[in-house]
Write a structure and sequence with these properties.
alpha/beta, 7-stranded mixed β-sheet, 5-stranded mixed β-sheet, 15 helices, binds nicotinamide-adenine-dinucleotide
Length: 407
């Protein structure tokens, strides 16, 4: 939270906003903490903490992922909901920002336990979510199955099907083509543009990716399709290098639950992966992986933040001093929320787009944000992170000011 607040303070100062603006922008609008009881398959009943934070609803309904991870807490959830607010404003989506989750290790849940936990969590936050209020989506530890259960739980209570209450759903339930790969596709588009800025030919440019989940895997696939060479990937158990194709590693990890041991690969620690001599480093796991301790060893020329908040302020300062171009999270991983927006629009209109239309519109919206960030960074002589925050924060501040203060 300290990092998110420091980034906001800097943007407020750089934009010369008032103390009133700071007070408004630095305060989350609605916080719900819930107890989520779970009956385990063996009959034991356990209690888990759940959260839903609606950081802002000024520019539209709030929007943000649901995380199932043992380490989540209220403070981090507020910080992530704040980041979602600037991300939606930066990409000009008509949303505020939200985040939620349950402090549980999703790996310890059977399928039936996962379903019961998801449904009970949904039921506990039901009064504050809805297509016009707050629209959850998948994040770490959740996927389209969880979204199907959330959609069903909400719909059963409403008495009719409400697909637009969540995004990231299976296609047959009103999901959008291109949503599964959207965040990774956006990471790849951001990488392509950053390579242009640095004058590096994408053909054969090398990439290392930390995190091989929904973001890391799809980013790797999209980057390979653009002609880059993914030389290393990692998951929570460590990294591997030496593979022929990302798909091979993926097939192995589907069967074995980890990438470690994939045929023909050599092992790396997560730290070794961060320090590889590659053109592009993509942290796509959890927060705080590029820190004061790890940043000085980074040799990549470009860092593209697939994860949310993967770089601490100290780590960021070191990367900047080394002249590394950092494409910040709220820009680099915004492909997910952009296509979530398309999914919501399609659900509300009951009219579904083809894959090409999704791809073209994602590229259009993300490219507009990238160009705006690049221009702002140049004209104000600030980093891409500062420029992205200035753009996002200024739009929310302007919306606040135009709506006025009630009463
Ligand atoms: P996921 O659960 O699908 O995958 C997370 C991956 O990170 C897994 O491969 C896991 O093994 C790995 N991991 C966990 N701890 C690690 C560690 N210490 N070192 C290396 N790898 C580790 O989650 P995801 O949806 O891919 O999300 C990853 C990040 O991207 C998160 O910060 C999330 O908030 C952010 N994000 C996700 C989306 C989305 O659409 N899913 C959108 C925007 C941002």
């Amino acid at each position: 939270m300290a990092t998110a607040l420091a980034q906001l303070r800097r943007a407020v100062d750089q934009l010369k906003l008032s103390e009133n603006d700071w007070n408004t922008l630095s305060t989350p609008r609605r916080i719900l903490e819930v107890a989520v009881p779970l009956r385990r398959d063996d009959g034991r009943v356990e209690m888990y903490k759940g959260y839903r934070v609606q950081y802002s609803t000024t520019r539209g309904p709030s929007k943000g992922g649901v995380r199932f991870h043992q380490d989540i807490n209220l403070e981090e959830t507020v910080a992530l909901a704040m980041l979602m607010t600037w991300k939606c404003a930066l990409t000009n989506l008509p949303y505020g920002g939200a985040k939620g989750g349950v402090a549980v290790d999703a790996h310890t849940l059977s399928l039936t336990e996962n379903e019961r936990l998801t449904r009970r969590y949904t039921s506990e936050i039901l009064p504050i979510i809805g297509p016009e209020r707050d629209i959850p989506a998948p994040d770490v530890g959740t996927d389209e199955r969880n979204m199907a259960w959330m959609m069903d739980t909400y719909s059963v209570n409403a008495g009719f099907a409400v697909p637009s209450v969540v995004t990231g759903k299976p296609i047959v339930l009103g999901g959008s083509l291109g949503r599964a790969s959207a965040t990774g596709d956006g990471v790849a588009i951001s990488t392509r543009e950053a390579l242009k800025v640095r004058g590096i030919n994408p053909q054969g440019a090398t990439v290392a990716i930390q995190g091989f989940g929904k973001v890391g895997y799809w980013a790797a696939i999209a980057l390979e399709a653009m002609g880059l060479k993914v030389v290393a990937v990692s998951d929570v158990n460590g990294g591997v290098t030496g593979f022929k194709s990302v798909e091979e590693v993926f097939e192995y990890s589907k069967k074995n639950g980890t990438i470690i041991g994939a045929p023909g690969t050599d092992r790396l620690t997560n730290e070794e992966l961060l320090h590889l001599g590659v053109d592009v480093l993509i942290p796509a796991a959890l927060a705080d992986s590029i820190t004061e301790a790890t940043a000085s060893g980074v040799k990549a020329r470009i860092v593209v933040e697939g994860a949310n908040a993967p770089t601490t302020p100290e780590g960021d300062a070191i990367l900047n001093n080394k002249g590394i171009l950092v494409v910040p999270d709220i820009l680099a991983n915004s492909g997910g929320v952009i296509v979530s927006y398309f999914e919501w629009v399609q659900d509300k209109q009951n009219y579904f787009w083809g894959a090409e239309e999704v791809r073209e519109n994602l590229n259009k919206i993300l490219m507009r944000a990238i160009v705006e960030v690049e221009d702002m960074a140049k004209s104000k002589k600030v980093t891409w992170r500062e420029a992205a925050h200035m753009l996002g924060v200024s739009r929310v501040a302007e919306a606040h000011s135009l709506r006025g203060l009630y009463p």
